[in-house]
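Q: What structure does this chain adopt?
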Amino acid sequence: MKLKKLMTSGLALAMLAGCSSGGGSAAAGSGSSSGGGSKGAGKSAVVQLDADLNTMDYEVATDGASFAMQTMCESGLTELDEKGQPKPDLAESWDVSEDHKTYTFHLRDAKWSNGDPVTAADFVYGWQRLVSPGLASEYNFLASTVCIENAAECISGDKPVTDLGVEAKDDKTFVVHLTQPVAFFLGLTAFPSFFPLNQKFFESQGGDLDGGASGTFAQSTDGMLYCGPYTMTDWVTGSEYTFKKNADYWDADNYGDSVDEVTFRFQQDTATAMMEFDSGKFDIVKLTSELVDQYKDKEGFTNRLTGYAWRLDFNFDDPTIKNENLRKAIMYGIDRQTICDDVLKDGSVAAEGFIPKDFAFGPDSKDYRDTAGKIVEFDAAKAGEYYEKAKAELGGDVKLELLCEDSESSQNVALNIKSMLEKNLPGSTFDLKVVPKKTRLNSMTHHEYQIGLTRWGPDYADPQTYMDLMKSDVPGYNGSYSNDEYNALMNKAETGEDAVDAEKRWADIVEAEKLLIDDAAMVPVYQNGGAYMISTDIEEGVQFHNAGVDNYRHIVKA
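A:
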């Protein structure tokens, strides 16, 4: 059975409002279709987490679980609707200049949870903090990605954050200046990195924009202000996080049918989670491969294909990893289809390149993957050939460490990769190092690893959200791969001569992706599917987005 109104969006945000030939505007719509009833009164929903909350600081967060919870209790200028398109949230309307480089947002009368009005100055301050060199947010690149004036210079410290191309014309008018048109800009204004920040409250918590200090901001339920449809009322690290309806949310009248309370509960053991699901203690559980066959024919089973793409990253600071023949041996030595069919069994598909399928669509409306073709494959013979070349250059067999996080699926995939590589690269040894996700992220950020199994969830439906991960000439880049030819090609597509020509830009990205694969800059493995059990009591409101953040704001329960 499929959930009655489970929404999975993979639509291209390049088709958003504001991309017409002239200036435009968007007017407010209802934030929910529930119509102000009270169907949700006294009702609650419990969502399983297979990875714990990392942070509620939305300018520090980098993971999907944190973003999903931040979106429950905070709001941006827009919200993605069930089809992945931006609709008005804290902005009731906006105007777009004829050259598509100036956006003027008109804010509605909204309040923070302490009663303060949400103002344009809150957006200015929040966006300035995002690009602050002191904070060094891992997501500060988004400000450059959407081409906000002076974003790169602010991130690098060459200009003060006050020079960022945003301004408060008055309390209710927020203006953003871009250096060039960006088709997916409006979609990203729903992303947590671009949420507003109340300066007075932030500083009262010991926060310092210039120095990067956060103090006690977002460290507890009392260390936050809320402007979204729910407030966070309980925070038990390593256990559960509860959100209750915010009566002061601007659209609270339209949340009458939504459940009063949503709890995200961390339970890494999926078998235990399913026992609790069967007893009514969970409403939404993500299944691991071991349980798919058991539940796939039961009512409430739901499959999705996500935009999350898993890959092996290399630490190019390591002298052994620098050997190109070794990296190519690893690339050819992994049987991706077997991993999807026999290990994951959740609708995941084998990677055909760095960019996933059914995610981004080009100027000809074709899926990017159909245009670029399959450029990653399994070939045991080629793997062996490249490994022999690597051995000759390195002086013998290699012993490497493969870092993965401690979720069931990650460990299972990593074990299979280890087995495949040791078989197809005879004489090689791959030792697994299993750590919590937060530790894995920290180790990879600080280049304290050799090979890491990691993923990227797209922030917007355009290949650039992936391709920017490998660009080493941008402020805030913390990877170890660097290729001047790749940087030049992507710069031409993003800000150079081809940036305003959709067809040429797309062709540049296709060429750049092939360069990455030819260079074995990383090894694509699979695109995440998702097998879920969702309680039949949930009638609608679970919104899975291929790009952006999954939305649990609108859950309606029988």
